[in-house]
């Protein structure tokens, strides 16, 4: 029964991620879904909840209809997944380091997923041709990766 539920949750999360990101590309022109699947697969060994949140880690902030997507998430997933998605979703106007990352670290699933996300974003910045954008994003994701890794290490003790 649990395997069936996990499979169903995974399929729903994949469907929502595909629906949200299907026409999006990253700064390199690659399908944004490549990044989404990379992050989800990076945390998959931690458990089903991590994998689902990995699939949906950018979905709410990247959709034009946040309320509708959040309604679907609340309908299909349990409280742990909902709380992690709320924690990992950056709000409009929110300071990335002061507000957003401090909320992310308060949720262990969001923390693990955001750590994988920041590391993958850091790797991808190497390939950005515009030097100013590459430097700006590289600095941001390096700082975020270091901070999140430290927080992960503290939570694991």
What percent of residues adopt helix (DSSP H or I)? Answer: over 70%
Named at the architecture level, the CATH assignment is: Orthogonal Bundle
CATH fold description: Hypothetical protein af1432
Number of strands: 0
Question: What are the SSEs and their pairings?
Answer:
Elements: H1 2-21, H2 32-43, H3 48-56, H4 59-62, H5 66-76, H6 79-88, H7 96-104, H8 108-125, H9 131-155
How is this structure best described in words?
The structure is a single chain. The protein is 75% helix and 0% strand. With 157 residues, the protein is mostly helical. The model has no long low-confidence stretch (mean pLDDT 92). It has one domain: Hypothetical protein af1432 (Orthogonal Bundle), CATH 1.10.3210.10. The chain is built from nine helices and no strands. The longest helix is centred in the last third of the chain and has 25 residues.
Please summarize what this structure is.
The chain is an all-alpha fold and 157 residues long. It has helices at 2-21, 32-43, 48-56, 59-62, 66-76, 79-88, 96-104, 108-125, 131-155.
Which properties best describe this structure?
globular, 157 residues, 75% helix, mainly alpha, Hypothetical protein af1432, single chain
């Amino acid at each position: 029964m649990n395997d069936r539920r996990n499979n169903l949750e995974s399929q729903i999360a994949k469907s929502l991620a595909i629906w949200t990101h299907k026409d999006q590309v990253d700064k390199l022109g690659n399908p944004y879904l490549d990044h989404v699947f990379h992050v989800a697969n990076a945390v998959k060994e931690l458990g089903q909840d991590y994998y689902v949140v990995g699939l949906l880690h950018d979905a709410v902030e990247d959709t034009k209809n946040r309320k509708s997507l959040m309604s679907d998430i609340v309908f299909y997933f349990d409280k742990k997944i909902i709380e992690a998605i709320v924690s990992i979703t950056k709000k409009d106007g929110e300071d990335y380091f002061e507000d957003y990352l401090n909320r992310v670290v308060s949720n262990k699933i969001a923390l693990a997923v955001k750590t994988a996300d920041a590391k993958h974003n850091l790797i991808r910045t190497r390939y950005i041709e515009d030097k100013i954008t590459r430097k700006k994003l590289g600095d941001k994701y390096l700082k975020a990766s270091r901070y999140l890794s430290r927080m992960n290490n503290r939570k694991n003790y």
